[in-house]
Amino acid sequence: MSEKVLMKGNEAIGEAAIRAGCLYYFGYPITPQSELPEFMARELPKRGGIFLQAESELASINMVYGAAACGVRAMTSSSSPGFSLKQEGISYLAAGELPCLLVNVQRGGPGLGTIQPGQADYFQATKGGGHGDYRLLVLAPDSVQEMYDLTLLGFELADKYRIPALLLSDGALGQMMEAVRLDHEVKPVPDKPWAVTGRRDRETLNVVQTLSLDKDTLEEHNRVLQDKYALLRKNEVRYEALNTEDADLILVAYGISARIAKSAMAKARAAGLKVGVFRPITLYPFPEEALYETAQTTKAYLVTELSCGQMVEDVERVTHSQQVHFYGRTGGNLPCADELFDQILRIMQGKEVGGRAR
Description:
- The protein is an alpha/beta fold.
- It folds into two domains: about 1-200 and about 205-235, Thiamin diphosphate (ThDP)-binding fold, Pyr/PP domains (Rossmann fold); about 240-350, 3-Layer(aba) Sandwich (Rossmann fold).
- Helices cover about 40% and strands about 20% of the residues.
- The strands form three sheets. The chain has a seven-stranded mixed beta sheet, with helices on both faces. Strands 9-11-10-13-14 form a five-stranded mixed beta sheet, with helices on both faces.
- Helix 1 (about 10-20) packs parallel to helix 7, helix 3 (about 55-70) packs parallel to helix 5 and helix 10 crosses helix 13 (about 335-350).
């Protein structure tokens, strides 16, 4: 059974997390994600869970480490500068192979920036924002419904692969209200025989640690992690491709930018222009093979994101195309569909894309 409820994006994450069996939230308020900790503070105690506002972002991420090590489903959330403060702890979570859900509702930067939406945390999310050779599973919703659905998926895949999962959203989606179809079922938390729970009928104690003073042992652990990431690239790639089969130009975008790209595509198609949209849903693993296949038929790409140009580097790397154009807005500004349509026309006419930030 399911029902549709009008919800903010940030609230949809919280509702999905609770229905995923997450009963432990540790966080710190920062705009534009504060509705999520507010929701968890209100709802978790009603459902037998624990909400704790930590004294800092550093404290909250280490609380997630402790809870995840005990085998429970735990999460934290923040927005860009606050999420940066969590990076050391995130590296520890990845090294400890501890499943959890992390949420970054991006805002404009750098520095404190603005409380308006941004997408300039792509490098941090997909390349490893902390130290060491590690990766996160990165999921990028483009609707409030996907904020809900990908939260459920994030917990599931985090447990399956013993990896921290990151839901990379933005201030527009976090504040947006849309109807969301909710699943009434509360998901059971799977058994985790590796968890630190005392002996509990085990002959030996489980230990979770990230320190290794033996270089060969640490190198082997790195191989284990890299093998895991290879499995992610093989099994967990997700994307959306619209009208790409016959497209002369493909817009590549994720999150809120993808919604705008879809509107621009619709306007272009109505004008008789063969334009498609390719939307990565997993930013890591990036849908390399699927995007490369489009390079065999399309003539050009237009990457649009709320940054000075980050995902565009992956599009250039994957497609090997000499015709990868970029159009970005920053500072909390969002392009409108007409703005992107104007860039489409410029490319079709062989002109330079206007207003490039890169």
